Amino acid sequence: MHTRAQRWAQDAYERVQARARTGEAGEYKDMALKLPVLIRQAGLAQALAFVESRGKAAHKSLGEDLARTLGYEGLRDLSAQARKAPLLEYLRLTREVLGAADWYKRFAQALIEE
């Protein structure tokens, strides 16, 4: 039996490793490094809306990967949940997204070279 954090770590590792082999790896890494800070500064709903509206495919790819790691169908599904969640649910969701995003940040630093 694995903890939730272990499942997130394994899933994030596999997804980042796959993205490290693509041409958008550098931009993916940049957003992986910035996303936890963005969430803490702007809030979850605003940060997800920012990622969703960005023109760069790598940023959206990170959002999609993160949402799927957390069990959502995609970035739009996660964003909708963040927008409509009551306060306690929103706070829980923020903690979960930050927890998973930290794994993406760590693995992006380790697996994607500049």
Give a quick precis of the structure.
The protein has helices at 4-19, 25-42, 44-53, 57-69, 75-84, 87-111. It is mainly α and 114 residues long. The longest helix is centred in the last third of the chain and has 25 residues, at 87-111.
Notes on the protein architecture:
The protein is globular. The model has no long low-confidence stretch (mean pLDDT 93). The termini are far apart. Helix 2 packs antiparallel against helix 6 (87-111). It has one domain: AF1862-like domain (Peroxidase, domain 1). Helix content is 81%, strand content 0%. The chain has 114 residues and is mostly helical. It contains six helices and no strands. The protein has helices at 4-19, 25-42, 44-53, 57-69, 75-84, 87-111. Keywords: Antiviral defense, Cytoplasm. Belongs to the CRISPR system Cmr5 family. It is found in: Cytoplasm.
What is the helix fraction of residues, given as a range? over 70%
Global Rg = 13 Å
Give the CATH H-level superfamily: AF1862-like domain
Number of domains: 1
CATH architectural designation? Orthogonal Bundle
Low-confidence stretches: none
Q: Strand fraction band? A: under 5%
CATH C-level class = Mainly Alpha
Largest sheet: none
| Helix and strand composition category | mainly alpha
Number of helices: 6
Question: Whole-number average pLDDT?
Answer: 93
For the secondary structure, the number of strands is 0
- List SSEs in N-to-C order: HHHHHH
CATH topology: Peroxidase, domain 1
Can you tell me the overall shape?
globular
Distance between the termini: 36 Å
Family: Belongs to the CRISPR system Cmr5 family.
GO biological process, one term: defense response to virus
Keywords: Antiviral defense, Cytoplasm
Protein name: CRISPR type III-B/RAMP module-associated protein Cmr5
